[in-house]
Prior knowledge:
The structure holds two protein chains of two kinds.
Chain A: H1 10-24, E1 29-30, H2 33-37, E2 57-59, H3 64-77, E3 81-84, E4 103-106, E5 113-117, E6 122-125, H4 131-141, E7 145-146, H5 157-162, H6 171-174, E8 180-186, E9 192-194, E10 228-235, E11 237-238, E12 242-250, H7 255-268, E13 276-278, H8 288-295, H9 299-308, E14 314-322, H10 324-341, E15 346-354, H11 359-363, H12 379-382, E16 412-415, H13 419-435, E17 457-460, H14 474-493, E18 497-498, H15 503-510, H16 515-531
Parallel strand pairs in A: 2-4, 3-4
Antiparallel strand pairs in A: 1-2, 5-6, 6-10, 7-11, 8-9, 8-10, 12-14, 12-15, 13-14, 16-17, 16-18
Chain B: H1 3-13, H2 15-22, H3 28-43, H4 57-66, H5 82-91, H6 106-124
Helix pairs in contact in B: 1-5, 3-6, 5-6
Amino acid sequence: MTILPPGVSAGQFAKALAEFTAAVGKDWVLTDDEDLQAYRDHFSMLKGQPDELVCSAAVCPADVAQVQAIVRIANRYKTPLFAISTGKNFAYGGPAPNVRGSVTVDLKRMNRVLEIDEKRHFALVEPGVSYIDFYRHIQERNLKVWVDTADVGWGGLMGNALDRGIGYTLGPYRDHFSAHCGMEVVLPDGELMRTGMGALPGSHAWQEYRHGFGPDPAGLFAQGGFGIVVKMGFRLMPQPEHWRTGLITVPKRRDFIALVDTVNYLTDLFIIGEPLYGSPLRNLRSDAEFVKAAEAFDEAAMDRIAASHNLHSWQVELQFYGSEKTTLANWEWAKELMLRNIPGAQCFEGESLPVPVTAEQIERTTRPYPAPYASQMRRNIMHGVPKLYVWWMPSRTDEFPDSWNESHLGLFSVVARSGAAVLQAQQDFDRIARELGNKPANLSAISTPVNWYQSVFLLGNGAFGSNTRNDTSPEAKIAQVKLLREVLRRNAALGYGDYRAPPVLQDAVADQYSFNNFALRRFNERLKDAIDPNGIILPGRGGVWPRALRALRGALRK
Amino acid sequence: MNKLTVVVAVLAAALPLLLSAAEPVADAAAGKQVFQLRCAPCHGAGRGGDPGREMLPGTDALRIKYKGALPALLEQRSDLPEPVLRVYLRHGSWSMPAFRKTELSDVDIANIAAYLALSARSSAH
Lengths: 558, 125
């Protein structure tokens, strides 16, 4: 089925394709239906619908010069481009564009690790390098550096960072965009630009000082359509000598506030890696009296029932990177702080392993804590080892033997990093879900935040993302889109905004960021119109629309 | 029965002919390398790792799907010649998204098919 870019005639598109072919070779301009299947979002809630966000063609350059040529051709024919690197941004749109009919620029063939320095701890990579590729490169050379990997290792360093993906080791590395250091970008007119020290010809520190001098536009290329990034530097974590874990539990619901304060203190002194919060009260999910109290957010009753079962209300697992002695000293200090700050806190020894851990150690499934305290620690990604283990989540499992999650979706709100803010957000999200006729699948009162970003929490928006696992009709999926937009709108009214979204929801998320009559969006779109007057580079990405296509804002399944 | 299922069924019926046509030109050793890099992280023989699951996600999904009628491990499957494999890889199947030519070339797919045929024969002995 031929799909045309918006506003481009069949004749003009044919000419554009001919020029793309001249630029990259006939094998690398893809227009067959079968070839383009893999450029769809496998989990799209509009899959198979007339307005599904699919591309008109894919063009696959082998080098920077070909990317520049593609951009210049697209300008001549006013053809929107959508760039992907490894194309695995599933749960956030996969490889699908924001505008139906865009030409996808598939950068996977540009897959070289250009440089790794294990003394200065950085790498420079091309777009197509996946976490699995990069890890293999490190292992083959026995380099003593780690990259903080995304959950699913087939994703790429660059693409994940540019969508502000996250990881699981130490704070500065977990924020993948903030861990970047220097990029090379093909601008909307085809010109090549480097950021940071890369702007200084002959600089020896491109991957060590990201700011350079003067305004740094690097942020425009994350979740934005201001250019196509073709090289990107990353800070790497030196391999520590030792890894240690421990578990803290606290008895009462309101103890969560002091627990978070204490963890924040350790986090911001760079003593601990990602802390993993949880609630031992998950063990009471089949206790009718507890469920009733939790659904009512009756804190006194929850505390009483927890105590009657000899259960603590909250737990956090801590992880320490360093030497055997420093990790032990830091764990001892963490315990001292917890016991000082939180009456009744308990501390449990976790694991203490020399690094690199052995294959047996990293795959061990036994956990060190006494029942009923469970561990959520995932050793592989905590050690920078990319895996696909979590792909069980959208897949056929014993729990769901006859279905897969066709609308696999990430939806997380930014929540202030305090215990009080989390307890409030639990109630807010629960109330909004119920107002919209969705009883949360899990008990909101014991939901816990993730501390992927060092300085803030993210909290899942209930169980909305999996609502369509059992109803896969197009009508159910479209109803889900509309429901999620309403969730986002109501969340924003209470001060919550999301950090990331698939294209079908990006305008709805961007609508949350409306301070002073959308001053930020208007600023971004003035920039967009100035440097991309034809509006060809990733139009609509991050809710930023070029003048030529601004009518498409919010138009999809309005 | 969806389109993908029909295509796979037709291809499976032509299996003997397809096997003889596909095998001679493919490189099983190269296919093993690509399989290890691109397929084994989900369809390999290891345990399901940190989440505490018994098998890797792809292997586990096929165990549940086939209920023992076919091996859960792709490396034990003798019914995945290149044309069949290509349909799965280019279209995706259930939670497995499709793979692009920039990730897996047609030659890669033929080589993987050759490797799977070889490994299936080995595992049968």
